[in-house]
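hey team, just a heads up i'm posting the complex here instead of the shared drive bc the drive is being weird again. everything in one block, sequence lines first with there labels, then the predicted structure for the whole assembly after. its two chains so it's a bit long, scroll down
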Amino acid sequence: MNKAEKKFRLYSILVIFVLLTVLLSVINGVNFTMAASDADEITQKIAERQGAFEPEEPSFQQKGAFGMGPMGPDSPEMNKSLRYFTVAFTNKGETAETVAFHISAVNESEAKEWAAGLLKEKTGWTRTTYRYRVYKKNGTTYVTVIDQGRELLPSYRILIISAVGEILVLIIGWFVLLGIGRKIYAPIEEADRKQKNFIKNANKEFRVPLTVINGNTELTERKYGPDEQSRSTHRQIAKMNELVEKLGKIGLFEDGDIRPEKVPLSEYLSAALDSSEERFASRNLELKADIAPDVTVNADPEAMSRLTDELIDNAVKFALTKVSFTLKNENGYVVIETANDASLPDGPADQVFDRFTTLENSDGTGLGLSYVKDIVKAHKGRASAEVASGIFTLRILM
Amino acid sequence: MRILFASPHRDLLECCKKLFDHDLGETVTAFDGTQVLYLLAKESFDIVILDRYIQRVDSREITERVHRKNIPVVILTYDSLSAHILTEEPVPNAYLPYPFDSEKISGVISNVLAKAASGETLKAGKAEIEVAKFRIKDGPRLTADEIDVLKAIAEGKSVASKDRVFISSLNAKLAKAGSDTRIKYRAKKGFEQVTENE
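-- predicted structure starts here --
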């Protein structure tokens, strides 16, 4: 499974999780809010009747919403099924009297004690499933507590079903996304594989004709002498040879085709920089190297050698006046960093690693750094690039 | 000098024959493996230049047969050189990746023939390299480029960036020969032969 497919699955499952969580939160939130609202309506009615609950008795013929008859506080059965108590407090709360007591969960003295504890409140939930309201009338404070446990039970069931349902949807979604991800990414991977194969085959197919063109041009020159046309042909052949050489590197270390061993990367980078001094000098580039000694990496030695060469090649080609190379161990990773001045806009520049992609004002082939990325990827490392304040920085973690 | 040049590409055969006839010596061409074997049995050659993907007979089999006749063989490859190719058996006397020009192939042929005629031996620690035989004594074969790199290191010369691919293959071959000598880079000194635990 490639990185893009993994990302697709993770983001998709995250989106499903967020959407489901929001949806179920709204449903359950509304459900609990409505339960509270129903309870508040009842406590309000009780408050209006100083502790009694005696709704007008509607007949069974009375129809409510949807023709189902009155529901909630207006139900004719509410008077029989409501479980509540009301305690009246006088003398600034010193005297407590039970004015209504229709509940089995507590006795009257416990009810008074419970109500006393709520005197300073207004309305809300107490002991999880009990709704209370504190109200004053004619100098008396009434505390009504109603049991909503039975009414809340369906809400709790919906909450649990929602949570379990969400987990199930996420699990099923994960497996569905596995299939979808494969279906979406298989053609992309296939196209990528075909592109690489085409490049590899085209590369091989170009090599012999180039040799023949070059040879025949030499033969023509020998016969008629070199002229501007033959020299131009040689220049174009040289360009093609360079391109063919670069194309030939594509896929060289892919598909796990690496032979890892302990590679002295400090030595490799130092050697590559030492042997490239003339190249930097020929472009008047100021070279700064900060190579920590004895940095090693478990990698394919040849791949590391090519990696350092490509980094140097890239810096020599694209730096304006100065280049720096840094190699160090950092947080358990080996870090290779190259920085050079460049006339590029600030921002992330990871597109430099895409095959055949070049940055503005660049006349490169778009292959060098894609090759670097291939090598780093084959070693399960990471490569990133960015431009900040006119400095192009390439960072590799392995 | 007689050259046997074998490749499945007829235009290439024609072009190279003209160039080699003029620059190097009589060139006989073959476009498949059976022709190569037939010509090898019938005629004598100073060097064989062989396309890696010659048809009908595997180039590896041809290389082994050419080795048995003590004729140097140069393999033309379609890939850039890598340690993977360089350590593949059987090892020819030189590899030359396409595309090349007459100067390049002439250089490779001259280099191989000069080494084949050389009585020189090189040392890599305790390992002895018999240049004319293109091999580490009692060990694997080396290519002309690998011998050149080894020689340059022994003489304290720098190794060009493009030649560093041979360091990996040389180290692999030295290990295969049971030698404890390896080529390593020393800061400010360049590549050196060192014993493994050094």
